[in-house]
């Protein structure tokens, strides 16, 4: 065991706390005995979090604060006061076709919250939520991935000259993750802050949302549900666009954020939250085992397995095993949790 960097009861700020990942990060921190201040753009729409966490952990453990525009100078100054740690999850996840409307505000938000953090003497740790698309292109089926890799191709595509077509959106999102994480590391190298920074890099995230009543099935948590329902239109518009890639359970992603916050040996690291490879047929096979009488789509012909070697994921697995007793959840476990939650089981 180890002595956590943050003492029991310390305050941690989680940005975008109402989201799929942010809400679970808050949950795992509260489980560990920390206090959480979550930032949202609209407090009224997120009061359910106060009710949920108060019921589970008691009064005074969780609070909400509003940051309407993360790119505004000083946007996070009040939010981080008295905090010992920050998990910066908030970002622009559904960009339009114009990179100028996404990338600059994302970078400004990262710079801004780091500047707010450095003014807090109590600050010990900062963790940034990055993404697999900051590291490699999803279409890359056989690479050896190392900790110092970047998806610079996405930046080139995002900033290509007009016309700005809707098809550019994914490249813009990827570029915002590449440049956003690089911005953090450059800032740390330049400013030499008194706190330690880490990043967490998840691929496609599955697993049940914290509250489907208030969150629905956001982002990629909708994939197993859509396949279960055999929603052909949604599959054609969304799922069929996903090449064979890698997955992780949302709770494992949250746990790795906690590791980046409190583990004394995790310093200036990129934590790769890659549980294993998957493709659509793998999910179909699991659903057929769980629901043999249900009508499901046929297997997609010719799908292969992504054979990229994610070497840094071994480090993340060991952290999970050391701190929680188990490593990454399997695809079977996370898909089952996803769909059984949907079916109300």
Can you offer a commentary on this structure?
Residues 12-265 form the NAD-dependent epimerase/dehydratase domain. Helix 3 (103-118) runs parallel beside helix 5 (169-191), helix 4 (152-158) crosses helix 5 and helix 10 (280-290) packs across helix 12. The protein has helices spanning 20-31, 47-57, 103-118, 152-158, 169-191, 212-215, 222-228, 232-237, 250-262, 280-290, 313-324, 331-343, and strands at 11-15, 35-40, 62-66, 85-88, 125-129, 144-145, 196-201, 204-206, 245-249, 270-272, 276-278, 309-310. The mean pLDDT is 96. Helices cover 39% and strands 14% of the residues. By secondary structure, it is an alpha/beta fold. The strands form 3 sheets. Strands 3-2-1-4-5-7-10 form a 7-stranded parallel β-sheet, with helices on both faces.
